[in-house]
Amino acid sequence: MHKKVVHLSRLSHTGKIYLFLLVPAIIVSLTFEPPVFFKILKPLIIPLLIIEVYQKSRSSIVNLSLFRWLYAALILSWLGDAFLMFEARDSSFFILGLSSFLMAHIGYMISIIITSEVTISKSIKSSRSLYLVFIVAYAMLFLSILYPGLGEMQFPVFIYAFVIMAMVAMSVLRSATGSLVVLAGAVLFVLSDSTLAYAKFINTFPGSRELTMLTYMLAQFLLVQGLLSTTTIKA
Q1: Which of 6, 106, 153, 179 is in the most buried spot, having the most CB atoms within 10 Å?
Q2: 108: which residues sit within 8 A by CB, 6+ positions away?
Q3: What is the pLDDT of residues 92-136, one digit of tens each?
């Protein structure tokens, strides 16, 4: 596995605006009630990352399928963000948001697979496959914690959990430049969704919104940066 990381000095202007301006601004905006500034800033998260992907696609000679799947994952994430902003008005918006992010994870999962220099089937035979046990154990433990509060949401949440953990599993098995960055992004996505789910279905706690948003924004950023750092892409 190549251990290339995202160096801050190599970030684009868009990446620096995202990391050093937008992320802190959104966290601070959560301290205001009503969250007017948050509602203004949150829709900017994904467009900035789409700009980042577009700029990279214009300056790099790589497999276009990666960019197509990245665009798909980001657009679906943006729809998920939009739907979740209205869940307080109608619970159906939560289902729409969950569905959008589920499909976004599939987009990320395909991006992870097509940028692996070693096929996933071969990676499963390596020592890294042992980490899959921890992934399954975490999923089972956390779902058992959520179960009492899920009610009629049991099936959608279980399906969503399966897909996002599959995405994490693919990031563990991925062998390519930026693999550790992609893995960090996938793990942070799970942490963000776990925090959100616990606060929604079990009990909210101080700082849950801030933790959910911080880990979500960093997850999206690291997934994009890690996948864009790939130097060898399967045809």
Answers
A1: 179
A2: 69, 73, 167, 186, 223, 227
A3: 999 999 999 999 999 999 999 998 877 766 766 666 778 899 999
Residue 233 lies in a domain: no
Q: Does 1 reside within a domain? A: no
Q: 188, 168 in Cβ contact below 8 A?
A: no
Count, residues in the chain: 235
Count the domains in the chain.
1
What confidence tens digit (pLDDT) does each residue in 9-67 have?
A: 478 899 999 999 999 999 999 999 888 999 999 999 999 999 999 988 887 766 688 99
Residues 148, 190, 144: CA angle, nearest 5 degrees: 20
Average pLDDT over residues 160-182: 93
Distance, in Å, from the CA atom of 82 to the CA atom of 235, rounded to the nearest integer, reads 34
